[in-house]
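Fill-in record for Aminopeptidase N.
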Amino acid sequence: MDRAAHETSPQPVRLQDYAPPPHLIDSVELTVELGDDWTKVTAILSGRRNPAAGSGPAPIVLDGQDQQLQAVTLDGRRLAESEYQVGAEKLTLPAVDGPFELMIEGRIRPQDNTALEGLYRSGGLYCTQCEAEGFRRITYYPDRPDVMAVFTVRIEADKERFPVLLANGNCVETGELPFGRHFAVWHDPFRKPAYLFAMVAGDLGCVEDSYVTRSGREVTLRIYVDPGNEGRTGHAMESLKRSMRWDEEVYGFEYDLDVFMIVAVSAFNMGAMENKGLNIFNDKFILADPDTATDGDFQRIEGIVAHEYFHNWTGNRITCRDWFQLSLKEGLTVFRDQEFSADMHDRGVKRVSDVRLLRTVQFPEDAGPTAHPVRPDTYIEINNFYTVTVYEKGSEVVRMIHTLLGPDGFRKGMDLYVERHDGQAVTCDDFVAAMEDATGVDLSRFRLWYSQAGTPTVTARWQHDPATRRLDLTLSQATPSTPGQPTKQPMPIPLRTALIGRNGAPLPLRLDGEPDGGGATERVLVLDEAATTVSFVDVPPGAVPSLLRGFSAPVKLDAAWSEEDLAFLAGADDDPFGRWEALQSLSTRALLAMVGALRAGKPAVLDQRVVEAFRASLADDRLEPAFLSELLALPGESLLGQALDVWHVDEVHAARAEARRVIGETLFDGWSALYERLSAAEPAGGADLSTAAMGRRALANAALAYMVASGREEGIRLAVAQARPDGTMTRVMGALVALNDLERPERDAALAAFHDRWQNDPLVLDKWFALKAGSARTDTLDQVKGLLEHPGFSIRIPNRVRALIGGFTAGNPVRFHAADGSGYDFLAEQVLALDAINPQVAARMTQPLVRWRKFDAGRGKAMTDALRRIIHSPTLSKDVYEIASKALA
Ligand code: PHE
Ligand code: ZN
């Protein structure tokens, strides 16, 4: 393995080494005096020895980073410097036995904090981000989630520049101070770990609303934004109220404080953060109006507002014992937000888009060098484990429990989980145990889903005997080895299964040996061994199995469908996911055949059956527009790349472009009629944000993109007209995306007009950066390099970095993976520049390099060269070190 220039490589933390904290903290009184040079932080901790961690005196060991310790007072006595040790990351104090009171005085410089963890400045605003281990940058503290305390926080600041002072809980006092300063005191009555602490100071606009809980308590809702942005908060506020209602109706969870606050900030590493009573958001996931946000943005905002709100119960009231248990709160909360969105909009469409994300991002992670279980057992830097595996696969694991227990059983399990663990810091195992104990269902083998990494492949073969009318379905499973886990055990895999009859209707099912199937047309088969065969009886000839309905398990399915079966299911499956999946599989097979042809130097010809299936779907007017737009989307380049042993980026790109051209051209009249019909239904102003209207716009944009792909001038003409910057953002972006790869002056003109209209709006400018970076045109890398100097770009704002640099390295495979290695050199350079500023974001940006084994030898060598260049940096953070070293291992 390559060694970093580090003297010693950073050491991993292991789940098996978990030990309860030697001391507990009952209450914290924090005083934060914000100043231009220094910010002074004083913490008074009331603590005691943890009875669960032995007895007798034990030294108090606190975490701390990037701060200057000024004084320590223990039980009223100021300690001499010889009585404690300050290390780079720990403060060790004398051993204590009984209760103690500790006062820690220190100072920090938030204005220099570019890592955006702890207390930092975003523009003129002070704000915090403490998950996972940011609190230790504010004061010395046992910064671990199983230490839960009641916090009282006093903030002092200049009144004119920082009129708004916020922290968790309720504001209990405010007042004036000398020299134009003021203060506010906040008290949060709920015990919480330090990672849920938050405070904000700044000059912010506020939009206020209220919500009456089902038990009749009135809650004040406030959203704080930069002054001038108040008009863009309406959607977030409505989303919040819908989330509050839904959580009461579905889980009986009521909000528990008198005020719920959201603050939108522009410099933020992640999407948003669920701090108790004071959620802090990346402004991108709050601000929206139809002129500046797309329908996709509106839906993401709704989902993220809900996600953070739902954390109040799943995450805050019941939190994680240690960071290995992260999916306890994240997998569960993602599952809850997915279900919320499914209830608010179209369940089938939501499922399809969640599965697409899982397959596009999580499956590759699970198959690569950074693969880890939903509950990891080791990490070097916990920030690297906020992954699609912990979140999205974690949600799939919870969904499987829901499928196995049924909705009522699952709700009973949730009730028991809350009854047992409210106010505690617990483990994934505690969650599963509550689900078992509430229902009597044995989930002992199911627990493997938390500990075993890798995506299982389920193989399905079947045989029908017309004489006996039996259909034997043989299922088997295998999970590939992953780093540190060479062999795998079979896991219980729930497979929702149906048989679709030749007339297109699902058949009533009866298993061999059953007196009667009860008329149900769907069964949950649980494959819990390496292989098994189930037999259905009374099956007429020609029935086609519909398997893994609703994507009931996060697996790869290898099923023996013929192209005819797939075309049939694409038109007939009564499960929306199954229907979409059938067309995806059919298209994938056809596209891979085209890639094969191109590799062999032959022309790529699209299988006519794909075009016919598209034609049939287009003509099916029973389909909701939103669903149809999903149905008509070909699998993306990275999905196709993954389906190959070697991802031939150029051929994959060319094959997909050719397929789009043929579908666009052959069905041009259909697209054009559809586009006209849908555009006529679009009211002027485009402010109809109903699910149906969003679906119509999605479908109109899909039709437009196919018309442009056809190469006909009419398509381009329509797109140019729709791209005019006075339209609503969904339509403008739809047109720009459709035009973006073209080597035509119209494309440049449309992008330039968009830039001129929006260059002073950072969130909209990000869309422009991403378009520029995502274009398949050959000059894209040069364009991106030039844009690093654009006045609207800043390497210190993660949203800008993700739009421009990420738009190229993660959003543009055909150009990023240029055979000459120029994309890799560019990324290595950017990662190193970024690492000195923000290691967490730098580590994420490194990701596109880790799956170098998926590419041909030349690219693989260039990618590993780039990784080596990164890892040999003498000042590398442990965040980037962990990713790069695993990639090279
Ligand atoms: N806990 C946040 C969420 O998923 C994500 C987050 C993690 C935000 C770490 C900031 C830092 O809702
Ligand atoms: Zn979360």
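KEY FINDING: The first strand starts at residue 13 and ends at 14.
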